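Example 5.3 — Lipoyl synthase
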Amino acid sequence: MCRNKIKQVFTVTIAHNQVKLQKPEWIRVKAPVSPTYHETVALIKDHKLHTVCEEAACPNIGECWSKKHATMMILGDVCTRACAFCNIKTGRPDLLDPHEPERVGSAVAKLGLAHVVITSVDRDDLDDGGAHHFAEVIRQIRLQAPQTTIEVLTPDFLRKPGALEIVVAARPDVYNHNLETVPRLYGSVRPGARYFHSLRLLDNVKRIDPTMFTKSGIMVGLGETKPEVHQVMDDLRAAGVDFMTIGQYLQPTPKHHPVMDFITPAEFDSYASMARGKGFLMVSASPLTRSSYHAGDDFNKLKQARSTL
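Solution (predicted structure tokens):
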């Protein structure tokens, strides 16, 4: 490519990044005011826990916390990666807190959760990527809140042999790992990850335990095309994934990847219809869909869908 063309492409890219798209009406949410929301805030702080709801600036925090639904984030609040879509801090994490699993179990019990989602930062600095910590959190929840079903949303455990097996052996009810975007955009959106490694991880969960529900999600509005999204659906089905989520990407700060497009509710409906046609047991696709949004209700629907097969 000649120098003039390079300059032209660069100029167009910068110009696009400087023009911030206005959020459409369907993406706006109300500020949290519920007393239960503030009770949940207090409980999380009292237990010295982190939540992805806060760290990732989730737009659904008001609704979820008003229902005492919170996605616990373990392994600290500092990530070893720097994904272009994520608002979680990046740097050198602290040592693991050995008492964190017990506090998570206590918080789940006090919240009286029927279903809980446990996620984490990436911990590439740990030999097992944090897998043993995940397993201990699951054990503590089973001990302190035995009626609660457990969904894990794990990192990819890249170059951590045996890590996946440790988490699966702890028997979560749902194993979730998000692909986040289409393979073409991994270099700019998720540079520390590998698309086909993530697919293999999901496939291996089913190979280890065919009865375990698996789940994965992507964001749209990052610059992907519809055929690319359809191909991701096919890839996930080939890996035996049961549940797919699709939500609108929202730019956390001006330093993060720009929103390239706001996908309309009608387009989300079209994606959902396509995914159901490809054989997923469950599909959640809407502008405000996130991995753990309505996770408890969706888990019940997931079990019902399998029972009718």
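Remark. Residues 31-308 form a domain with the TIM Barrel fold (CATH 3.20.20.70).
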